[in-house]
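Q: What would this chain look like folded?
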Amino acid sequence: MRAASVAAPVARLADAVVSHACGRRRSGRSAVVAPERCTRLGGEAVVTTRLERMTKRSERRAQRKRAARSTFRVSASAASPPIGPTFTSDDIYRAEGERALRRLTFAVCLSMVSFGCATGAIAGALLHLESANTALGALTAGAKSRVIAATPLGALLGALVAGPFADKTGRRSSILVGNALFLLGAGLMFTAVTPTQLTCGRLCAGLAVGFSTSLCTVYIGECAPAAQRGQLSSYAPLGVTVGILAAYFASLPLTNVAGGWRLTLAMCALPAAAQLCIKDWLVESPRWLAERGDVAGAQASLNALGQRHVEAGSLKSSFHSSGPVDPGEHEQGGDSSPSSKRRGVKKRVTFASLVTERRYRKPAAIACGLNVAQQLCGINLVVYFAPRVLNELGFQPSVAIGFVCAIGVLQLVVGSKIGAVIDTYGRRPVALGGIAGLAGGLAMLAISSFLTPMGMYPWAPWIAVLGILVFRLSFSASMAPIPYVVSAEVFPSEARSVGAAAGAAAREVANVVVTGTFIPLVECLGATRVWVLYVCVVCGAFFVVRATLPETRGRTLESMDTDGV
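A: My prediction, written as structure tokens:
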């Protein structure tokens, strides 16, 4: 009786538990248990199974927590790096060297910006100087030719002086002298009251151009590592593009302003003055210092440029590899005493040496040939006369200058990217592809000049705009940087500055010939035949460059000293 009374409540409790287990819907991983399954298995079995599962899950959670805590303790006790990036002293040193190299490249390229300003300014100034309303009066054809030709003539004289001067006084001081000449020339042009004074100002600016074009890429190339030499050296001709573009943009608001030509021509003073303000960024070339026997100074320059792994003694030995050097000098780590300088200094290289000595003949031919080809393609014709050509084809002067400015912006974008392409794909493919584009652009100018006078094709003048665009972009991607870069690479170290100066001089001779003969040729043959003539010249240059241009990508300057080109 008592047992039955106790069993009845237990049975009711079991039924309640079973019904709860069968009907409850859990929000977790457990599914609803069907009533028929509970009936089949029995209430007690269901409750037992669920309790076992819950216990096992709890045990597994506890095990995971213990494992996580133990792993955390192990990782915390281990020597793990702190949160965030870590920098070693070498990393910091290389970063400082990279900044110093970029600052040096920027400061050097300001000279080329001044060159671009002096070159591009004449295009807008000619629109003023052809008018009788200026203080100089209307310039005659002869006076205009002298004003235009004064800069390339001065550049020729400057290039002849720059090489020996840089060998004697250093790359840094030569660049600064060139900028002082820019300031002097800008002052003469800004205050000009006679055509003769204007010509003298242009001549003085040309002397500065000779210094810049001869030495900028040599300076950068001697300071840059081999893997970056092409890219950094390409920024020098890019600076020319920046200067030309700045001069064009300055001409736009000054087109109808009295005396606006003075401000346009004097713009070359601004980058020159900026360079003089940051002259402390200019570190002397370590290779020039090594050539002079100043191993300590060369090593200091290398350290400042982040090239501590390069031994100044190796630079010195390569410089003097073809000359008499005391063997014990390098074994002692390089003696910078005056006597050691006298023993180790290579005999002086002159312009005559480039012809008389067999070692220099091939590099001189390559450098001079490339620079002459650069001018024979007609780049300065497009730079000097593009606004005038578009004006004669029917565009207003302000519109013509606006088109040239827009094309210059695109050229600047292309030029800023071409340095990495040169170092990646090489000098030869870039040069040949660009020369083909030059021929296409000149062909478009010939077509436009042929169709426009007919008056039957209103779209014909736009072919000239497209031709100038193709020409300028192709030039920026090929013949703008390649002659500068290669001229600073192919010569042995002791002849590098003189050889680059010879290439610059050859370029300016070609520039004088091209700019001096363009207007007479147009008057004699007509614009169409002249452009066709230059198409033929560019096609010839393609095959000459293809046969003679060496590939110098990735080679150190020291390897070219020993192995040649």
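The mean pLDDT is 75.
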